[in-house]
Amino acid sequence: MKSPALDPLRRLDLRDRRADKLFHLIVLGCAVFVLVALLGAALSMLWGGREAFLTFGWKFLWSSQWDAVQKNFGALIPIYGTLITALLAMTMAVPVSFGVALFLTEIAPKWLRMPVASAIDLLAGIPSIIYGMWGLFVFVPFMAKYVDPWLTNHLGTLPVVGTLFRGPAIGLGMLTAGIVLAVMVIPFIAAVMREVFATVPSTLKESAYALGSTTWEVVWHVVLPYTRSAVTGGVFLGLGRALGETMAVTFVLGNSHRLSASLLEPGNSIAATIANEFTEADSSLYLSSLIALGFLLFVVTFIVLAIARLMLRRMSRMEGN
After folding, report:
1. Using an 8 Å Cβ cutoff, are 91 and 164 in contact?
2. Helix, strand or coil, per DSSP, at residue 267
3. For the segment 88-111, what is each residue's pLDDT rounded down to a tens digit?
4. Please, are residues 287 and 208 in contact by the beta-carbon 8 Å criterion?
5. Which residues are CB-contacts of 162 (< 8 A; sequence separation ≥ 6)?
6. Which of 279, 274, 222, 209 is nearest to 244 (CA)?
7. 87, 274 in Cβ contact below 8 A?
8. What are φ and ψ of residue 180, in 5° steps?
9. What's the rounded Cα separation, in Å, for the pair 102 and 216?
10. How many CB atoms lie within 10 A of CB 256?
């Protein structure tokens, strides 16, 4: 005979199962929506840039020409500017971010950690256009007056390396853009590193200290191996942000379609080219070329993040996970 006392329990269990199934469908829908939106954005840019790809073919990738009058477009200079400025930014940002995160988690007194950490979090949330305006009105004059002349006089005369530091002292250029980008991504990477370093169990660090290790030895032999994958992921997320940055770079890069090895010369990037010239595109081929640049930026960013994912997977295998 069926017990009436079990019916409420069964109804409660059935309701819980339905709620779990509904929750599963909702989160699955969110994940699928992200993938569909990502794929849709990529395909729409590829479709919008089809005229440029069909007109110029593979030449669009390596041509340095960007002539709106003659309707001759190539993506080499924007791609070069994007990669160089991002590389400069990460070269400067990663060591500084590591130092900031290390100071906050291992060295700073407790009363100082919270204010500095809050300041870093606030800096990470400042819009990029603010960094761009600061770069244009404050940092560019400083570079033009002090840094660029010094680099030209002291490093520009050196063989081979000197070609990187020759050019007019106008402050605008890839070096300035790289420094502004570094300032912009340092709070982001430092915040990620700080959160990751804080997850290291204190027993591991105390054990190392008990064996006579110094702070640096504890960081190098305990903290970094424990957080290696997450730190690498944070660095590549910062790189992805640097590659796609628009406004901060637009203000200080100089926006010149001229290929030069000098870091002091004005250049251009994919995002800056699109932002500056999208409203000036007076032909379908011009507009298609700008959209094709957007698709190339999507591809470059996707490749970088895919490499980061592969590196994280390889590290995880090496760690035995």
Report:
1. no
2. strand
3. 999 999 999 999 988 888 888 888
4. no
5. 155, 156
6. 274
7. no
8. -65, -40
9. 9
10. 16
Residues 238-251, mean pLDDT to the nearest whole number: 84
- The rounded distance, in Å, linking the Cα atoms of 196 and 238 is 15
Q: Give me the mean pLDDT over the 296-312 stretch.
A: 82
175-231 pLDDT, tens digit each: 999 999 999 999 989 988 888 888 888 888 888 888 888 888 888 888 888 888 788
With 0-12 / 13-18 / 19 or more C-beta atoms within 10 angstroms meaning exposed / middle / buried, residue 161 is exposed
Structure tokens at 145: 């007056």
280: tokens are 């000036």
CB 305 within 8 A of CB 236: yes
245: left (phi over 0), alpha (psi -120 to 50) or beta: beta
Q: How many CB atoms lie within 10 A of CB 155?
A: 13
- Tell me what percent of the chain is helix, strand and coil, each rounded to the nearest 5: 75, 0, 20
Angle, CA of 229, 85 and 292, to the nearest 5°: 95
Q: What is the pLDDT of residue 321?
A: 57
What is the arithmetic mean of pLDDT over 41-49?
91
Q: Which residues pair with 67 in a beta bridge?
A: 72
* pLDDT at residue 32, rounded to an integer: 94
